[in-house]
Structure formats: structure tokens, C-alpha cells
Amino acid sequence: MKGWSVKLKIARHLRLGSVLLEQQQYAEALAEFQMARALNPNRPVIRLRMANTYLKQRRYAEAIAEYQVALRLNPLMVRPRLGLGKAYLEVRKYDEAVAQYGAVLRFRPGLAVVHLMLGNVHLAQQRYREAIAEYQAALRLNPKLAVAHLQLGGIYTGQRLYPEAVGAYQGALKLNPKLAVAHLMLGNMYVEQERYLKAIAAYQAAADTNPKMAEAHLKLGAVYIGQRQYPEAAAAYQAALKLKPKLAVAHLKLGDVYVGWKQYPEAIAAYQAAVDANPGMVEPHLKLGGVYAKQRQYPEAVVKFETALKLNPKLAVAHLNLGEIYFEQKLVAEAMMAYQAAVRLNPKLAMAHFKLGLLYGEQGEHSEAMAEYQAALLLNPKLAMAHLMLGVIYAKQGYEWEAMAEYQKAKDASAG
After folding, report:
1. The CATH number fitting domain 245-293, selected from 3.30.2130.10, 1.10.3810.10, 1.25.40.10, 3.40.50.1220
2. Which of 142, 242, 318, 415 is least surrounded by Cβ atoms within 10 Å, i.e. has the fewest?
3. Does the predicted TM-score (pTM) go above 0.85?
């Protein structure tokens, strides 16, 4: 009778622990399994379930130890080896993971899930050919394994094999039409192929399938902006924000839509919301500075560009924008310093070279001005004003033919 009583208690602890584990109440589940282990430490299934709980808690060393105990108690069990493979993968012990999966295949050569897991190990090591082979082997054994299609799609995407990626994601969706992530990834592929209507349909399907997927709305917004469908873009970003009110990128993109509509107070509010959501994000500060500059609110603009530079001192565009403000205010020394800082950080900023040329020209430093105009034109041969100002300097120096040539280039660039 006593033996039966112990067995019943163990069964009760195992059953309750399994329910708690399913409900993601890991500490409570572990407590139940530990009570079962106290009653009989030599039952492999108890050690297996403890290990599974540790794995869910990302306590990998403890999970590995319990899986190993389970295997010592019963070397023929498959599940502890599968669990060990997962745990070793998480701690990047790839050879050990492969060894466990290989051992399973020696016992059970037809297990598709083992090939799937081997594919994951190869993928983690960026061994893409081996990963593809394993995922394909998994699908030969189990054609209904949607996750294998998803993994293949991810590899093909990374290799820019877009038709193959599309086929893989479509294969996953044939098996599970409600797989939101497959719709999302399919949308990404259509964007890469510039098939925007199909991308919109795919992202919308992702949002419909998983109404809590904010990323699907973000992607929709990006496509709508690219297609200049601003009302639809605004609606998409607002939908994302209903799901995640502190999603900085959604506030940022919504601000861009308002700028496109010239609704500057609304744009400022959206960009400020992005700053509040993520104070360390540079782009909202830049965008705020740009809006303030458009409205000639120069002190506010300067503050925002300087804040951006505190966050990223190597941000050439912030120096360029500061230069533009100082240039407008005829603060020559400050503008010169800002433009020089911009071209030091990014020598390919044609407009910074052009503005430096103007400033040097105003101070009578014609050689320096010419050098800056020429630098600007090397970067942008169609910059009409640079040709024009270069022509002016040639004319002042008495080089009439050179001046006429530059004037003609300026005229052609303007006409083009």
C-alpha cells in the first residue's frame, strides 16, 4: 500500500507540474517536479521534466545536468537527447548539440524534427548549405513541417534568393494559412521585388492573422509612404501605436507623414513622442530640428541638432544642418565651422562644399572658394549653382572662356 501511495503522489506532482509548465508558471512547476524527485530520484521522467523546466527558464547548466541524469537512468530515451541538443545550442556548444542529435538519428533515423534541429545548429554557425540540406531532409520526412519552410525562407532571404524565399514562405502558408510571421516575411520579399500591391496584401494578412503584431502595421506604413499613400500610411502607424504606444519608430514615421502634409505642429508632437519613448534615438532630434528650421525657429532647431550631436558626435548631417541655420542667419564663422566639421566627417556632402565655397567667396578667398565648388561638382556634376559661382570667379579673374563654359553648364544643369 505504501508503494502505491508514493506512486500516486509522484503522479499527482508530475501532472500538476506539467499543467503549471504549460501555463508558463515555471517556478511553481519546478517545485512540483522537485517534490516528485524527493519521492523517487531515479525516475528518468521526473529528471526530464525538471530539465525541460530549467530549459524554459534559460538555466542551461542545470538543464544539461538533469538531462544527463535522465540519460544515465535510461540511455535509450530520445527526449533527453533532444533537450540536451537545444541546451547545447543555446550555450553555443555546437559540436555537443550535433553529437546528441546524431545519437537520436542512430536510434530513430526517420525523425524529421531532429533534422530540423540539426538545421538550426548549422544555421547558428552560418553554415547555410548544411542547414538547407537538413531542413530539406526534414521536409522529405514530414512535408507538413511548416517551420522548416520558414527557416529555409530566412536563409534564402539572407542570400537574396528572393524567388526561392517566396516559395518557401508560400509553402509554410499552404500548411498553416494563419502563420502571421510567414505573411510578414512574404511581404518583405515582395518589397525587395518591388511588388508593392502584393506586399501590402501580405502585410495586411499578417495584421489580420495576428492583430497584436505591430510590426505588420509598421511595414504597411513604410510601403504606403513609398507609394505616397499618406492617409493609409498614417492609419497604419496609428494602428501600430494603439498596440504599442511607446513604439518610437512609429511616432517617428507618423511625424514624417505630417511633414509631408505640412502639418508641422502635429509633426513636432509626433517627433517629441518618439523622443519621449526613446531619448537615446538620434533621428527624432534631427527631424525636430528640421521642422523647427523650416518654421525659422532657429534657436529650437539648434538645440535639437546639438542634442543629436551629443548622442552621435560623428553625425555629419547634423553639422550640415547647423551650418544651414548659421548661413541663413549670416553667422559666417559659425557656419564655416559647421560646414567644415560636416565635410571632415563626410567628404561626400556636396552641399557642404558648395556652401563653404560661398562663404570663402564672400570673404574674397577665391582660390579656396574654387576648390570647394570643384569638390562639390565632382560629387554632383548637376549642381547648377556651383557651376554658376565657379563661372563668376573665372570672370573676375579674366578667364572669359572658362567662365562662359561654366555658365553654359549651369544653364544645362538647370534645364535638366
Report:
1. 1.25.40.10
2. 415
3. no
